[in-house]
């Protein structure tokens, strides 16, 4: 048996929707990206949605729109996909990492408080790094693997220190924190639609916000700095080509039409995995909280301290089971070490999780017998390694 890590779930509806657009003259900046924006805004419950060419592009525009620039700091997590902190580097701002909670794997708000109290000065308006005098402008929490962050505490901290909140919800569409959907908590929030996300446009992303100015700025910057309604070759500000094309938007609309079905299918797969694995020795299954509703992005287990994770992965691959080490610590990536001098031991919980995590095959249409195959092999491998 060969089981891939991830597979998009594309039905006839999606195929027809994309084909219909290719037959029209409107391949970009047509009606579809607006319709897609409306469907996401309505689903999340926000006033504005701005489609973009990727989640990374969306996060970059939010950083720009909040005027985060050279020398500024943004507090975030080192346990994430790399683009959540790369977007600061695009603007020569600095990601300031704090370690994660070992249960949720999200940024630990206690660590944020301790960092500010011990190494920052707050004058009632501006929070400054005591040593470098750099200003902290924002907090960028990531809902890792679709598990919502502790948004109450993050908001308390943001209010107390006058900071903006940028939600990286790229892995979490449909997730809820205390009954409210993620994407409603940030000054701006971003979703991503790469092929392995819960819903896909192949490549694509969406900025959502209740702030009209934010939405207008992002719309302008994604379209070469043009203001809405201005002439094609008049550019009000520095912009990019971060537009989402109409075929991708049509794919997104069709996927949004099935979102409940898709999220349920993923939950079903996660539940079967949980059932099969939760009592196994040397396996820690994903954390589930009563305060939140997860949107399952991936299924990541952790193996016990004495188990050689890389060897387990090797054996799984040999048996046709594709898997991946989600996520390596961002601060230990080669160019982060070089730029900032990070080293092993800087963020011990993140590093420990990075060394023990394995993402198992996970997608909507994964069959029960395939899940059984994965779990039986995994248990066998672990048993043999003891
Ligand atoms: C997928 C993802 C992004 C953005 O991804 P793109 O590939 O640029 O769409 C950003 N942050 C996190 C945490 C992600 O998982």
Describe what this molecule looks like in 3D.
The protein is an alpha/beta fold and 386 residues long. Helix content is 39%, strand content 15%. It contains 13 helices and 15 strands. The protein has helices at residues 12-22, 31-44, 55-65, 83-90, 109-119, 151-161, 212-222, 246-256, 259-277, 309-318, 334-340, 348-356, 368-385; strands at residues 48-52, 73-76, 94-97, 120-122, 127-129, 135-140, 164-168, 176-177, 180-181, 188-192, 205-209, 283-284, 292-293, 299-303, 357-360. Strands 1, 2, 3, 4, 5, 6, 7, 10 and 11 form a nine-stranded mixed sheet that branches. It has a three-stranded antiparallel sheet with strand order 9-8-13, with no helix packed on it. Helix 3 packs across helix 4 and helix 3 crosses helix 7. The longest helix is centred in the last third of the chain and has 19 residues, at 259-277. The two termini are 25 Å apart. The model has no long low-confidence stretch (mean pLDDT 97). Bound molecules: pyridoxal-5'-phosphate. The site of pyridoxal-5'-phosphate (PLP) has 14 residues, from helix 3 and helix 4.
């Amino acid at each position: 048996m060969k089981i891939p890590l991830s597979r998009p779930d594309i039905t006839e509806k999606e195929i027809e929707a994309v084909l219909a657009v290719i037959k029209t003259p409107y391949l970009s900046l047509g009606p579809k990206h607006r319709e897609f924006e409306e469907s996401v805004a309505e689903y999340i419950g926000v006033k504005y949605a701005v489609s973009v060419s990727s989640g990374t592009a969306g996060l970059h525009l939010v950083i720009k729109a909040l005027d985060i620039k050279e020398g500024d700091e943004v507090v975030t997590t080192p346990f994430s996909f790399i683009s959540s902190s790369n977007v600061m580097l695009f603007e020569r701002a600095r990601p300031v990492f704090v370690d994660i909670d070992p249960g949720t794997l999200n940024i630990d708000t206690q660590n944020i408080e301790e960092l500010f109290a011990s190494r920052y000065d707050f004058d009632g308006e501006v929070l400054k790094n005591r040593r470098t005098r750099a200003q902290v402008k924002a907090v960028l929490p990531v809902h890792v693997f679709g598990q919502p962050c502790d948004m109450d505490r993050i908001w308390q901290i943001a209010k107390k220190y006058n900071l903006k909140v940028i939600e990286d919800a790229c892995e979490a569409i449909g997730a809820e924190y205390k009954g409210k959907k993620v994407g409603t908590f940030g000054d701006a929030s971003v979703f991503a639609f790469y092929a392995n996300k819960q819903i896909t446009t192949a490549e694509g992303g969406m900025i959502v916000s209740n702030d009209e100015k934010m939405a207008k700025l992002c719309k302008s910057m994604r379209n070469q700095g043009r203001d809405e309604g201005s002439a094609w070759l008049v550019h009000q500000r520095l912009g990019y080509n971060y537009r989402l094309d109409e075929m991708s938007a049509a794919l997104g609309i069709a996927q949004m039409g099935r979102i409940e079905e898709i999220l349920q299918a993923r939950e079903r797969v996660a539940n079967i995995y949980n059932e099969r694995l939760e009592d196994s020795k040397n396996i820690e299954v994903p954390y589930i909280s009563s305060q939140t509703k997860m949107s399952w992005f991936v299924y990541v287990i952790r193996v016990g301290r004495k188990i050689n994770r890389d060897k387990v992965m090797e054996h799984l691959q040999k048996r046709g089971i594709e898997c991946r080490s989600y996520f390596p610590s961002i601060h230990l990536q080669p160019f982060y070490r070089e730029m900032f001098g990070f080293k092993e031991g800087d963020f011990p919980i993140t590093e420990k999780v990075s060394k023990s995590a394995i993402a198992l095959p996970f997608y909507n249409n994964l069959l029960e017998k395939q899940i059984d195959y994965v779990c039986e092999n995994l248990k066998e491998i672990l048993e043999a390694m003891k």
